Write the structure tokens for this entry.
Amino acid sequence: MFGTHNAAFVQVMYEQYLRDPASVGEEWRKLFDNGKVAELPIIPTNRSEVLGSGEQGAAPSAPPPATAPRSALPPSTSLTPITGPAARLAQNMADSLSLPTATSFREIAVDVLDARRRELNAQLAAAGKKISYTHLIGYAIVRVARELPVMTHAFQDVDGKPHRFDPHAVNLGLAVDVEKKDGSRALVVPVIKHAEGMDFATFHTTYEALVDKARTNKLVPDDFAGATITLTNPGTIGTVASVPRLMRGQGSIIATGAIRTIGGAKVMTITSTYDHRIIQGAESGMFLARMEELLRDALVEAKSRGYACATKASKERRLREKKRRGEKKRLRAKGE
């Protein structure tokens, strides 16, 4: 249901539930109360372990024999056990090594995209909205995945035999980095479901709503379900190019690098890491090439004109309403 990307977050919610069931939302309580914890991507534990009370724990081990050889090395004070969500993340990374992946790289020019984004933001400023590069790139991924659905396929083993799973949907996972109360950081991947049927305005609104829920810790279990392709953007922290880990249950993950200037042109490196059992290098390359076409020719911006037009129409309605109010006020003054 969740995908291994979100396993660490689920572990956090599960341990929080064990400490105090009332501290998590109703959707999470129902999920953990249904007795199917074994089906979730979590490391089994119990309330006493989470609380650190030592109840129901193993009996203390006997002291070592007096004749046991002593280590020549001084005792380490820098080792700490990895537990909870960090342990879940470590297990996920180890499991991901079993996936036979490959990665395609493509460097694309984004001068036109930058110009179109500025134009669009100028039109949206009155409505208090703003379009980021990630919004446009995410929408481009959706458009191309609709044309080349193989990138959303996943490998499944059924009764020991390999199968290709076609979800018949573009459910875009958004890798969101969130800061927790203790200052540490965590990765969650909420999902925009059936993005293939959205215009840009709907996509943008859904995107922003999910990111806001992630950063305010209001995501519910259903927000994590069903990702078929994922976008991660390490470029926001200056990473030039990235080869992210592909988790089980998905066919590909797209990563964007930082925008940089080379020879006077703005460029960005986009990578596609894919499951080589079901996706071939040519298909991944075609996917990135088509993305470049959309971004270079600003076709994404053309698809988003409905957003700009809707904003323009809203502005015109406000002006008409203001004019009507002024006219009514003038007539009242005249009548007096």
